[in-house]
What does this fold into?
Amino acid sequence: MTSLQKCGVIGVGFVGATSAYTLATSGLFSELVLVDMNQKKAEGEAADINHGVSFAKPCRVRAGSYADLAGCGLIVIAAGANQKPGESRVELLGRNHAILSSIIGQLMAVNRYAVLLIVSNPVDVLTYMAQKLSGLPAGRVIGSGTVLDTARLKYLVGQHVGVDSRNVHAFIIGEHGDSELAVWSSANISGVDLADYCRITGKDDSFGAMQRIYENVRDAAYSIIESKGATYYGIGMAVRRIAEAIVRDEHSVLPVSSLITGHYGVDDLCLGLPTVVGKNGAETVLDIPLSDDELRALQASAKKMKSVIAELGM
It folds into this structure.
């Protein structure tokens, strides 16, 4: 029997540890189990987070083994190998496939009922791998997708037009990576079409201005990594938001990555698309209207990812 008040995090590097922190302080869980190949690292992260829990809602954080993940209703997978100098993405994916295969094998032996949230990169391909390896229903294996990219887009558009980013409604969809695309055709500020809002307020809505915003979103991780070596706060907060939608059964629309079957002419692939998210994970993938150019860009993104999967022989 699983409980959505119990959560597991596998892999406590920068991203996993930061996600564990945001989840422990979210008030969503009564218990959080951290699992890592480096047991001492997991124990240290658990202790550090526990020391601050008294400033938040009660939550027991502990290091554990795969056996301790039995009963978890949500399990976040943030483990994976980092790219070595001169290593191709396909070679990296080959190593991560081996790591993920080991994780899923051990996890399925103790828990086949949790929702799995994949955070490791490249998240869309690894989500696809996790679904195939686990054999779980497609909706219960999801990736963080373009949730963070969409948050970056909302922030930058909000800065550009001078409004709270929570009033910006727009999506980044497709691959969480270089081929992602912004859906400008339906972007709006609290229901007012973005182009109309810019015209009313005298803001620049030229192709050049929008393209610069998109490029800043697409390249944000590169910029942050160049500055500080890794990105983890933004994705940690994105993980918390996805967890909230699942635990509270919100039926919120978030661009998570899940197995796509026929949407936009794409099949048997995981992509970040607007999706209704609730206690069962990805419940409904939405076919939001796209312009012809956006549809072509999405299909090109899908084709690129298909080729990577084919190279891996999956």
Remarks:
- DSSP finds ten helices and 16 strands in the chain.
